[in-house]
Design goal:
2 strands
Length: 202
Amino acid sequence: MKAFDRIDRPVVIFCKAVVFITFIVIIASAALQVFYRFILDKSFSWTDELCRYGMVWMTFIGAGYAVRTHQHIAVDLLKTVISPTAAVVLDRINDICMMGFGATLAYFGGKLSVMNMAQISPGLKFSMGLVYSCVPICGVLICGYALADLLGWVIPEKRTSGEGNRRVYSSDCFVSCLFWSFGNLSAYQLQHWGGLSSGYAV
């Protein structure tokens, strides 16, 4: 438990710093582009990429950290009709499923990052492998925090539902992670996994 706390503290700082910095970068670069385009009648070639890549990192790192804080969307319909013991078992099954999902994301995300390491973005001249590296990092975060929740190292936070004062655990987010992942993977054109490397858009 103490070893986990020593690892968890810098990881939390890293996640919060990435989300905060990328959020500021997105706002600043978008505002700069709007000012130059509509006021000075000029345009930058790199601000659009910076916004998109910042959004990619903010989304994936934030999603990984949200597993720790149990802030993903929770589907608690089943847990409201089963016994507390069965609900605990359901939480453990959910943790195992999320570990598998995180491991899959880390494995294929790592392959994606390595495969595109030599590909350079046209505007910022960044290696696309570095841009895509947030995918395996997210997978490791999801897998690690799901394991920590399974072992009881992370105290489950409770979320108040909309009906009265009933409170429910919010750890059953495996399905929401799947929907989130499929939506983002398609939006960021991660079909590069299949060897299609024709585009630079994420």
